[in-house]
Amino acid sequence: MKQKTVLLLLNLGTPDSPSRWQVGRYLGQFLNDPRVIDIPWLARKILVNCIIVPFRAGNSSKLYNAIWDKETGSPLLMNTLALQKKLQAAVGDDITVEMAMRYKNPSMDVVLERIHQQGYHKIIVFPLFPQYASSSTGSALQRFMEIVSQWWVIPEIKMVSQYFDNADFINCIVNRAKQYDLKQYDHIVFSYHGLPERQVDKVYNDGVLCKHHHCEDVLTESNYYCYKAACYQTTKALVEKLGIAQDKYTLSFQSRLNNKWLTPFSDKVIEELAVKGAKNILVFSPAFTADCLETLYEIGIEYQEIFHKHGGQKIQLVESLNSGDDWVETIKKIVLS
């Protein structure tokens, strides 16, 4: 009997449209996740539903409108669907490739119900987040397990939790860099999505804070699932492969909500580089495998405005892996190993 296998790609999510109403619904679902805002239930409900969503939905709607394609819609959804299609062609008929979002659509509930009805013998779960974080990979895998745990028959399951140290993944980013002459840029920034410091502290069971685990310098058994450590190791691998001098690059974190998040902050780094005289900067976003609001708008538009305001000229965003052939082959190799 031939075994039926399905590969499930998981991404974060996107509003169904850039309207204020749909953006508000997306933010409400996303920010009410206790792995995203890890504070007591009542405090989170008040903060998200009474403060953040009412005040941020309108502004976020404007940002989504700025990157929304009138024909294809959300860039994140478009890029992930394209990846799914190319992966399906790459793996052939032996494996079915499905895709779901942690928040909004296509929802994990609907996609997993379809998988359930098809009676697959094996599910391979591949979150599209290279570096593990509780608020992204952890949340997606938890929701997957919550749904599947209700099935009477639970098939064989393989879950990929992170792959920042995978050589083929690193080479995919290096391939994107080859489109640019690195010597033409005054500085290179590796900008990762930020996290509250308390969330990386929770990785450790020894009671020692993340900042005392030397995550910037070395990868160990204890910090292997620390997001900060994974970001630094990703950058080190890229810097080595690309031959970038130590004084020519900076690692930073973007999208913060307050000053208790991982530092240095990307917007401040961009501003400081401009003030010091940098005119052209190349920015990588190695935590994002698909271009989205955080890359296309935050880096491509918002940071460009900050850079220009303080004397800089051009920020060049390196495109994400999206549905590149090398990325398709890398995923195929990882999931089939």
TrEMBL record:
Catalyzes the ferrous insertion into protoporphyrin IX. It catalyses: heme b + 2 H(+) = protoporphyrin IX + Fe(2+); Fe-coproporphyrin III + 2 H(+) = coproporphyrin III + Fe(2+). One of its GO terms (molecular function) is ferrochelatase activity. InterPro entries: Ferrochelatase, Ferrochelatase_C, Ferrochelatase_N. Its EC number is 4.98.1.1. It comes from the Bacteria. GO terms for biological process: heme biosynthetic process. It is an enzyme of class 4 (lyase). Keywords: Cytoplasm, Heme biosynthesis, Iron, Lyase, Metal-binding, Porphyrin biosynthesis. Pathway: Porphyrin-containing compound metabolism; protoheme biosynthesis; protoheme from protoporphyrin-IX: step 1/1. It comes from Crenothrix polyspora. Fe(2+) binds at H193, E294. This is Ferrochelatase. It is found in: Cytoplasm. Its main location: cytoplasm. Pfam families: Ferrochelatase (PF00762). Belongs to the ferrochelatase family. One of its GO terms (cellular component) is cytoplasm.
